[in-house]
């Protein structure tokens, strides 16, 4: 941002804390999510929002979990909060799912028919958009697609919840539809969706909403273009997202169906449905569950961990390192093993910048995970390490699945998980960029590597 000196045509750069924030879109995003969480925390602390006493730290945990669309909870939302409190939680989920920059940018588009370059840069950073995509058209498509899908999901869930005897079935349908599409995993039921383990209607509807949210709004734009042009018009990124997402869910379903004892006792149709749902919930980072996660065998936990680390897709509502980064790393390893100079993915050469970003994202994620797991092991000394690792990955990838550790977290553990959920929603690499200190010599010429 530059301002002109009075009476002169010269421009000088703005300095100070405002410039340090404005020059990094990642910092704007971080402050936006922190603001949403703080407002939500204040609203959830109101007596009108609570059915019974909720500790301030637990209210902050719930607000952060909702804004980050994670779904980890230290208290049961359905019994701890009033209808007003549930509305606040759902509003935070919707704001977090759409993204901090989306709301303000769409409002400016409606009023001013344009947005500033800085806001556009922040919106592109939030959704990890490629440069050819028009930000204005994209944001309008995001809003329209979101509310159409969520309304359709609620309409489908309502009669099923009504027949199941759910209290306030319309509200439950709306809440779970929004929570599923925003991959938040918040449920008004104390045991999530375990009561619907063999119910194909509820399971498949929630799965469809979650997959649409996780694959991202770029998919919606391509679908809209296909409908308008009456011919398939899927871009390169869309093909990667769809292929990787379906492959991971398919592989996870097969492994869980064949080797998980918890689902092996079910009839084959219910067994496949339960296995698919758990693979889907980890891959999309939605966090609903139809079987108790704490009862799963270690091999199944390993499968879920891999799916959670990869996570959802760019411009989606989920977390993880993203399917595109995973595909890039997979192509890099494959081409290196085959001795190829160029890294090819679906017949396209992957630019060096994309490989560097994918590598940095994965490296930073693993480093962050090691530190977070070590700190959680220190704060939760009596917990099994696999529970600690699962909790850390679930928070960092904004999944919301837990092996039972969340409700037993100490106060330092809760604070740490709050930080992990915030970092996960922003994107682990973006979070690192947001908190990194800008050095004066960042733009200096690089020195040769070696002696």
UniProtKB/TrEMBL annotation:
Q: Which domain of life is it from?
A: Bacteria
Q: Does the keyword Transmembrane helix apply?
A: yes
A GO molecular function held by the record = monoatomic cation transmembrane transporter activity
Question: InterPro entries given for it?
Answer: Cat_transpt
The record's principal subcellular location, in a coarse class, is: membrane
Q: What Pfam families does this protein map onto?
A: TrkH
Q: Where in the cell is it found?
A: Cell membrane
Q: Which UniProt keywords apply?
A: Cell membrane, Ion transport, Membrane, Transmembrane, Transmembrane helix, Transport
Q: Which residues cross the membrane?
A: 28-49, 87-111, 137-158, 170-190, 202-224, 236-259, 271-289, 296-313, 358-376, 388-408, 415-436
Q: An example Gene Ontology cellular component term from the record?
A: plasma membrane
Reply yes or no: does the keyword Ribosomal protein apply. Answer: no
Which membrane topology describes this protein? Multi-pass membrane protein
One of its GO biological process terms is: metal ion transport
PANTHER family linked to this entry: KTR SYSTEM POTASSIUM UPTAKE PROTEIN B, TRK SYSTEM POTASSIUM UPTAKE PROTEIN TRKG-RELATED
Protein name, entry field: Potassium transporter KtrB
- Organism of derivation: Histidinibacterium lentulum
